[in-house]
């Protein structure tokens, strides 16, 4: 031990420095080994490494190269899985990205999509323990907890009857903040003032819907309600609604028109949705008025209706309704019910909000990334007979050609031919291709290129609902779909859709290549690989995809289907149809992340 007492001048400083470094490296490696093997750090580092690898496809050149390889069938492995923390990822409603944006008019809660080159090219995995969803109609009342293990709503809202955890399930007693005893007594109360039965009302919009128990309860009345809410602090409320089999959509009323045509809904409902209807010169009330069919009903429950300390807000709300000539049907406790006039009986007249009619250059059904207008949509701006009470009752309205079909040349004839064509095609799907349509395995259906809604109309006797998507760059036929008593949205398929992963059982698209082309051009705006990766994100494991297109396009689609882990077959079209179409039928395989993820 004597060497420890050597004078400083006798030590070899270089030797000691080397020994220190070697010792430090040795102990550092031992510590790192233990951290990687015996703690979660190793898993998270591996995941972040994979994420970095996936994000490297954001390098445009590398990403484009991968897309080309997949399209040509030269990428022989499946596209990589996304990291485990992306199981609920919605690219356009990403809180990490959108939280940097302005809070003004809730801009930060609206859709804000990354550019395609900024998105990793990977497949969203299911969460650990994911099970094939509970089938309809049992799913209305219970779902698997492991499919979306988010307890926040159950913990916060369980006392209001929203949902509760029970064994391996979440159960839904049917309550809401304004109807903790269940939606049924609340709907019964509304039925005293509104014709909820008999087919007069068919399409409804439920704003700020929670887990959509109100919309779910209306289904038994023959009313098809589309429920929406933003991605917000009540984590995954729309995800719960869709898992239950209730029509729902992630959406925020902020700075833009909602993606629906004018006069779409027979009935609009807000139960404690907390939308400031009279703010910004009543801009939000005006948007609701654009969407509400003449003769339709508006119901608002909760603040500010006869609410403590909200006298001014309540007075303002009544003043806007008066300015628009809405008929006050009832104020029942904290619920107010108005009926919209059938025609333009009021405006323009003097009112404290400065409301004026929109000019003729404004197409009220143009609603894709369209800034909110502070003007009132006149009924004469939309051709046709569509007020509630004049439009045929449900189900007659499903097959009656609405005058809005004249948005297309020879629209009435086109409508009738389209209805016949899809009746024939759906029969072929069921009888010859043996698709699961009509079985309990299929509840949530999407038609990505809906036109007049003929595919959805042909499924009316099945226990399904259909999200009819009208591409935003195609003719604006969505008003026809609503006149038929069906529901849907505008969307551009070069962007991700506003839904959670694993929310549709069945996705249908006729003419998939047209979704990525510039209208009237052969030039593509985006690519089929990104579109099919997005379809995979929306589709449930073991879900079905049906794609119709030319043989050349179907061959390309089949190559991409292999890369997104679908099992696919190519089939001939029904013998009565003209043209060269082929039909690809694919099933999404139920794969899971390996432990290395």
From TrEMBL:
Coiled coil: none annotated. Pfam families: Methyltransf_29 (PF03141). It is a single-pass membrane protein; Single-pass type II membrane protein. SUPFAM superfamilies: S-adenosyl-L-methionine-dependent methyltransferases. Its main location: membrane. It is an enzyme of class 2 (transferase). One of its GO terms (molecular function) is S-adenosylmethionine-dependent methyltransferase activity. InterPro entries: Put_SAM_MeTrfase, SAM-dependent_MTases_sf. It is found in: Endomembrane system; Membrane. It comes from the Eukaryota. The chain crosses the membrane at residues 21-41. GO terms for biological process: methylation. The keyword Glycoprotein applies. GO terms for cellular component: endosome; membrane; trans-Golgi network. Keywords: Glycoprotein, Membrane, Methyltransferase, Signal-anchor, Transferase, Transmembrane, Transmembrane helix. Its EC number is 2.1.1.-. The keyword Transmembrane applies. Belongs to the methyltransferase superfamily. PANTHER family: PECTIN METHYLTRANSFERASE QUA3-RELATED, SAM-DEPENDENT METHYLTRANSFERASE. This is Methyltransferase. The lineage of its organism: Eukaryota, Viridiplantae, Streptophyta, Embryophyta, Tracheophyta.
């Amino acid at each position: 031990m004597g060497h420890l007492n050597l004078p400083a001048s006798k030590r070899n400083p270089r030797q000691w420095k080397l020994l220190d470094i070697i010792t430090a490296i040795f102990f550092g490696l031992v510590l790192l080994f233990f951290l990687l093997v015996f703690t979660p750090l190793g898993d998270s580092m591996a995941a972040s490494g994979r994420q970095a690898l996936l994000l490297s496809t954001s390098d445009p050149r590398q990403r484009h190269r991968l897309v080309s390889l997949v399209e040509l069938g030269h990428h022989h492995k499946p596209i990589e899985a996304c990291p485990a923390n992306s199981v609920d990822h919605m690219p356009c409603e990403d809180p990490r990205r959108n939280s940097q944006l302005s809070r003004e008019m809730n801009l930060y809660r609206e859709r804000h999509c990354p550019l395609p080159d900024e998105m990793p090219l990977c497949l969203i995995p299911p969460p650990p323990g994911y099970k094939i969803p509970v089938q309809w109609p049992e799913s209305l009342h219970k779902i698997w907890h492991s499919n979306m293990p988010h307890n926040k709503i159950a913990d916060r809202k369980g006392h209001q009857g929203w949902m509760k955890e029970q064994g391996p399930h979440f159960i839904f007693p049917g309550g809401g903040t304004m109807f903790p005893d269940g939606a049924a007594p609340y709907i019964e109360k509304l039925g005293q003032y509104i014709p909820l039965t008999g087919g007069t009302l068919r399409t409804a919009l439920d704003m700020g819907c929670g887990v959509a128990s109100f919309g779910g309860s209306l289904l038994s009345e023959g009313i098809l309600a589309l429920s929406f809410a933003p991605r917000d602090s009540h984590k995954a409320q729309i995800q719960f609604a869709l898992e239950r089999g209730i029509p729902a959509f992630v959406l925020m009323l902020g700075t833009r028109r909602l993606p629906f045509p004018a006069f779409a809904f027979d009935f609009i409902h807000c139960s404690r949705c907390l939308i400031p209807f009279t703010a910004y010169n009543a801009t939000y009330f005006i948007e609701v008025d654009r969407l509400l069919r003449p003769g339709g009903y508006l119901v608002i429950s909760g603040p500010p209706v006869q609410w403590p300390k909200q006298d001014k807000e309540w007075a303002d709300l009544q003043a806007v309704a008066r300015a628009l000539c809405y008929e006050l049907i009832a104020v029942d406790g904290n619920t107010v019910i108005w009926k919209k006039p059938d025609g333009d009986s009021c405006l323009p007249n003097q009112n404290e909000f400065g409301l004026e009619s929109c000019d003729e250059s404004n197409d009220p059904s143009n609603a894709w990334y369209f800034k909110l207008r502070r003007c009132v949509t006149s009924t004469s701006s939309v051709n046709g007979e569509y007020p509630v009470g004049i439009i045929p009752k449900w189900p007659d309205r499903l097959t009656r050609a609405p005058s809005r079909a004249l948005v297309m040349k020879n629209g009435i004839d086109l409508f009738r031919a389209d209805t016949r064509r899809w009746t024939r095609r759906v029969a072929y799907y069921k009888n010859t291709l043996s698709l699961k349509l009509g079985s309990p395995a299929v509840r949530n259906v999407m038609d990505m290129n809906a036109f007049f809604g003929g595919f959805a109309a042909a499924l009316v006797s099945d226990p399904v609902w259909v999200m009819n998507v009208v591409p935003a760059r195609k003719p604006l036929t969505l008003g026809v779909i609503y006149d038929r008593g069906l529901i849907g949205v505008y969307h551009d398929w070069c962007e991700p859709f506003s839904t959670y992963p694993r929310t549709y059982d069945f996705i249908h698209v006729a003419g998939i290549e047209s979704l990525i082309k510039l209208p009237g051009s052969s030039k593509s705006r985006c690519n089929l690989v990104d579109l099919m990766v997005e379809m995979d994100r929306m589709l449930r494991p073991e879900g079905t995809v049906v794609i119709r297109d030319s043989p050349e396009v179907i061959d390309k689609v089949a190559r991409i289907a292999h890369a997104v882990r679908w099992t696919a077959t190519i089939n001939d079209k029904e013998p009565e149809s003209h043209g060269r179409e082929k039909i690809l039928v694919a099933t999404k395989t139920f794969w899971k992340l390996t432990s290395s993820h």
